[in-house]
Design goal:
With 223 residues, this protein is an alpha+beta fold. Helices cover 56% and strands 10% of the residues. The chain has helices spanning 9-50, 64-82, 87-102, 107-117, 120-133, 164-171, 178-182, 184-192; strands at 143-148, 156-162, 196-198, 209-213, 220-221. A 5-stranded mixed sheet has the order 1-2-4-3-5. A hairpin with a 7-residue loop joins strand 1 (143-148) and strand 2.
């Protein structure tokens, strides 16, 4: 069984490049073209070095859509740190880059994503993945419980008791970045129609992350 994503180096770097194309104007507005290109090249090198260290959670795990952005933003954060930025300043830039990237998603595709997020097949897969996660096959992975909707305030929920992103950032000596990356969920919910309510996160020292999703609902994230 594979123990890391070293064999995915080319694929992950391609994903990094596509992401940067969609959000680099945030950096350009701050630093200009020349300095931004230098920053991006440095971050790409950081990311390439990180790839073999990303915790293996399966070849086709749907949770890679959360873990891989965490690893990409860690690479960017390290470069911003070397430039002398605080965690608050870095978090603000990363938040803006994430929002910029999400805003490039066409409206019709946002509607499709929103529909799929609440589709019976997707929910069935989530139940299956949640149950599988409790076997802890991947030490660096996510562990979560599926929560049935109450028929009124939320359609379904997920309680994460272990977070691959938090574990990875701690292992990389950057646990302070985790709460700022959790804030990205607010923008994702608003743009993609998750209707997310959340009152606590592992990143801020709570016992779990309590995600509750409501189709057509308002985003309400307290932590």
């Amino acid at each position: 069984m594979k123990s890391n994503y070293a064999s995915c180096r080319r694929q992950f770097l391609k994903s990094f490049d596509k992401s940067i194309v969609r959000n680099k104007r945030v950096l350009i507005s701050r630093y200009g073209n020349e300095r931004t290109n230098s920053l991006i090249n440095e971050a790409r090198q950081e990311y390439e070095a990180l790839i073999p260290q990303i915790p293996f959670i399966g070849d086709r795990s749907p949770f890679l859509i959360f873990l891989l952005p965490t690893s990409r933003y860690l690479a960017i954060y390290r470069v911003l740190q070397r430039m002398g930025l605080t965690i608050e300043e870095s978090g603000q830039i990363i938040n803006q880059m994430n929002q910029c990237e999400l805003n490039t998603i066409p409206n019709f595709l946002r509607r499709i994503i929103g529909y799929l997020w609440f589709s019976p097949l997707f929910i069935w897969r989530l139940k299956k993945r949640a149950k599988e996660s409790q076997e802890r096959k991947y030490p660096g992975g996510y562990v979560l419980t599926f929560i049935k909707g109450d028929g009124r305030t939320f359609d379904y929920g997920l309680d994460y008791i272990e977070c691959a992103g938090c574990k990875f950032l701690s292992q990389q000596g950057a646990p302070e970045l985790a709460p700022f990356l959790c804030e990205l969920d607010k923008t994702s919910s608003e743009i993609l129609g998750w209707g997310l309510t959340r009152t606590m996160t592992l990143a801020k020292g709570h016992k779990k992350c309590d995600f509750r999703f409501k189709k057509g609902g308002k985003t309400n994230i307290e932590s």
